[in-house]
Amino acid sequence: MMSKTHIAVGAAAALAIAQTGSVESCVLAIVGGSLGGIIADCDITPSKAHRDALMGRLIVAGIALAAFAIDYWYGAGVCNYLLESLGAKLVGGIAVFVALTFVGAHTDHRSFTHSLVAMMGFCVAVWLAFEPMLPFFVTGYASHLVMDLTNYQPIKLLWPMKRGFGLGLCHAKRLANSVMLIVGTVATTLLLAYRLAPLFGIAITIG
Ligand SMILES: [Zn+2]
Question: Which residues of the chain have pLDDT under 70?
Answer without folding.
Answer: 49, 206-207
